[in-house]
Each structure stands twice: as C-alpha cells, then as structure tokens.
Amino acid sequence: MAAFLLCGSLVNAQSYVQFNPSVRYSRLVIDKNLYNFKANTKSGGFAKFNEMGDSLSANVSKFDYVPGLVAKAVLEAVDLYQDSAWARPWFYSIRTYGSLNAGTSRKGGSLDDLNACKMYFGLAELTKQGAVFEDAVRYAAYQGAKQKALAGLEDHNNNYSISQTTSEAFEGTDEYIGGWWHKSKYKNEMWCDGQYMGPALLAMLLAENYQYKGLSSAEAWNEVGRQFQMTWNKLWDSDRQLLWHAFTATPSEAQTVGWADQDASSPHYGVSSEYWGRAAGWYFLALIDVLELMPQECRYYLILRDYANNVAEGLAKRIQPQGAWCQLLAYPVGTVPEGCTKENYLEASASAIFTAAYLKGMRLGLFDKDYSTLAKKAYKGLVENFLTTDYLLINSCASAGLSKDRNGSAKYYLEGSDTKKITSYTEGKILGAFILAATEYERRFLPESNSGELAESSCHCLQVTMKER
Questions:
Q1: Rounded to a whole number, what is the largest CA-CA distance in the chain?
Q2: Residues 6+ apart with CB under 8 A from 238
Q3: Containing H/E element for 236?
Q4: Tens digits of per-residue pLDDT, 71-90?
Q5: Could you write out the DSSP letters of every residue in 41-108?
C-alpha cells in the first residue's frame, strides 16, 4: 500500500480515498451518485435540480426497495443540512420521486417494496407547516402515502403470514403464528432483512398514531415485537453471536429443502447455513430504528434492547483489521471457505449498515458498552476500503437470496451468479447505507457551523491510498 498526492484529476477505480475526519463525505457521495446509480444491475437515479428547484434532468427510478432506500437516506441528510443551500437540490430530487408515487395504492406480497414507503416520513417532516420546504398540498399527499403503506402492511399480514396450522406443524407450537413472509414467493419464510423492511416500517406508522388492523396501540406494538422475537429465536446463534440469514416454517417444501436444515430434532431446524453480512446489518439497524420509536413501557422494549446489545457485541468481534466487515461474517477476510474457490472479502453495504447502526445506537444511548472507538474505526474503514477517489462506492454484494436454486452455502454467497461483488459502479444499497452512516457520523462528530466549508471539491488536492485488488 503506497500513498500518493494527486491533484485535479480522477484516478482509476483501484484508488481509494484516504480518510479525512473533517470532510463531509455525505455531500461528496450524494452529489456524485444521486443522479446515476444502479439497483442491482438496472440503471437508476433521480431527477436533477438546482438550488432554486429548477429541473435539470428528468431521470427518475421506479418505485422499488433500492431507490426507496436511497431516498430515505438522502432525506436524513437533507434534514441535517436543511439550512445549507447545497442540500436543497437533493430535496427537490426526492420530492419529485416521492410525489410521482404518493397516490399509488399499496398491497402486500413484498416487504422489500413496502420499505420504500419510509421516504414519506422524511418528505412529510420537511414539508409540514413551518418546515423549511413547507408545502400543504404535498404534505397532504405524503400523509396519504403513509396510510397506503399501512394498508399494504395489513394486506401482507392477512395474506402472507404464517398460519396456525403451519406453526403447529413446524414445531408443535403457536409461536410462529402471524410471522410475515419475506415475499409472497417465499412462502412461510422469515428473513433477517425483512425485519428492516416490514416491522420497522410499522413502527414508524405506530409512532405517528396510525391504527393497525383495529388493534390498540399497545397491541400493535406487541405485533412489532413479536416479529423480532420469532426471528431471533430461530436465527440467533448464541455460540457465535451471529445471525443466520433466514428460516422457513415449512422445511420440507421443494423451494426450501435445498437450503433449510432438515433435522427436525435440531434447534436449527428450518434455518439456513451461513451468516450473510447485509442481512444481519438490516436486522441490527431495524432494532435500532424500532427502539428509537417504541414506547419504553412496551413489553418488548427491553427484549429488543437486549437483542441489539447482543448483536452489537457479536459484530464487534468480527470487524476486520481494515475497519470493515466481510461478506460472510463467520470467516476472516481472505479465507477460502470449504467448497469455495473465491476468498471471503470486505463487503461495503454490510459494513456501512453496521456502522450506521452503531452510531445511531450510541446517539440514542441504547448500548451497554461504549463503541465509540469501534464506530470511528468502522467509518474510517468505510471510506478507505470502499470509496474511490472519484467518489464511487464499490465492493458491495449485488444481491442474495434463498430458493430452490440458491442453497445458502458459502459458495453461493461468494460465487453465485446473483451475488457478484460490484467493482465498477455505485449500487443503491451501498449508496443508501453509506449516506445513513455518514449522516450519523457527521451529526455526532463534525461541527454544524462548518457544514458549508468542509466538503472537498474535485479541484482540491487529495491524498489517496493505492490498493491492489
């Protein structure tokens, strides 16, 4: 690894930024990528505006999990920097995206897609009466979009959740009744990632007093807690202090027999076999987001807080010397797991989500231990391992799932056709996750008064680190 001083020119994608604690990387990354990122391999991006709200381009992504995640993250940055003129174009971009989709009815069947509705909370907050972007008409539309999101969750609960018969056949108990399937095509499956997409969205609605399927507020909050309890009881490995990716309540069905443990006498029955970083990241951040909103008198509050502390402690043991986490959490970076031909690698999106969760959990006072040193190391690692000198975010896993043809083995996560490591463009999941982490870091560690002066521009000299892949 060698350091060089470069001025005024872009460097190839093998060059990474050397961390500067005074730089607001959220601004650099948003300005570079907001109008041109990808959702997996499909082109995305948002319409471009100037500071006055004049349209400069019309590119708008479809309503989907990935651009929705980016939108939510950008709105958190806008909220932090709402008094800075350079943040106004970001708001106009997301406002356009949100307004185009606000009137659409929502149904269940995909917790991923419903997750995109989270952006309406940020949009409503920024357009309400007295807000910096006050707009009564749009505010009303965004409030309506929240109601439609609630209808989508209710539909998902009614049509895509584990039945009493299935729960009793699975383990002879009613423990899993009402567990939300990740998607309609993943019948009776609950995934770590789904807790960020579904229950965390419901928590946002309950915090604003939306009534869920006729339940009292306390009963509805208990429903949120139960989703986490069901997944925790099956997916938490207390020995390794890590979360498996998913479980199914119907392990013998054709679509799950390839990846789910078939030993009915094992506590691991129905569970997948590896600890995938990004899935664990969404679960961790979901816990933090829900605990921010859940009333402390809720019977599940202390339970979920205990979960969050266990996850934090387990992940702290898995951070690599480079200040990042791996695609597969059980193996050190550079390890070639049994049956594989490729090495385990430092993965961008999981590292960013973990960093965001640690920083936000610290801000909210949720942890029993001090993770300040780890969080700073992780944020520095995000920049130096994944942010190129032309401000692309790379080395993220494109996608991963479990199905008849995706067996959840280490080989699948490292060598599957859909799990490839992205090295040439910014994908939306790392973009959104990085913005969440950067915003939390900047809120905590950078002085607000200098927000307009601390961003690097392309004409400034940058010290960068050259790394061979």
A1: 66
A2: 310
A3: strand 236-237
A4: 999 999 999 999 999 999 99
A5: TEE----EE-TT--EEE-----S-HHHHHHHHHHHHHHHHTTTSGGGHHHHHHHHHHHHHHTT----S
pLDDT over 80 at 454, yes or no: no
Rounded distance between C-alpha atoms, residue 388 and residue 49, angstroms: 25
Q: Nearest Cα to 240, choosing from 174, 168, 310?
A: 310
Distance of CA 94 to the CA centre of its chain: 18
Distance CA(32)–CA(430), nearest Å, equals: 14
Closest to 207 measured CA to CA, from 194, 198, 217, 215: 217
Residue 77 · residue 112 · CB < 8 Å: no
Query: pLDDT class for 5, splitting at 50, 70, 90?
Result: very low
Helices (H) then strands (E): counts for the chain? 17, 13
> Is the pTM higher than 0.70?
yes
Tokens of 20: 């500067």
Determine which helix (DSSP H) or strand (DSSP E) holds 206, and give its type and residue range.
helix 199-207
Q: What's the confidence (pLDDT) of residue 455?
A: 43
In angstroms, the CA 286 to CA 197 distance is 8
What rounded mean pLDDT belongs to the chain? 93
Dump pLDDT digits (tens) for 292-349.
Answer: 999 999 999 999 999 999 999 999 999 999 999 999 999 999 999 999 999 999 999 9
Q: How far apart are CA 422 and CA 393, in angstroms?
A: 9
> Are residues 88 and 448 in contact, defined by beta-carbon separation less than 8 angstroms?
no
Residue 340 — φ and ψ, nearest 5°? -105, 160
H or E stretch covering 461:
strand 461-466
Question: Is there a contact between 335 and 311 (Cβ–Cβ < 8 Å)?
Answer: no
Angle between helices 301-316 and 217-235 (to 10 degrees): 30
pLDDT at 458 over 50: no
The residue behind tokens 């090495």 is 343
| β-bridge partners, 6 | 462
Q: Which helix (H) or strand (E) holds 385?
A: helix 372-386
Neighbours of 309 (CB within 10 A): 16
Structure tokens at 178: 């009402």
Confidence of residue 225 (pLDDT cuts 50, 70, 90): very high
Q: Determine the Cα angle at 362 with ends 361 and 368, to 5°.
A: 90
Neighbours of 83 (CB within 10 A): 11
- Report yes or no: 228 and 300 within 8 Å, Cβ to Cβ: yes
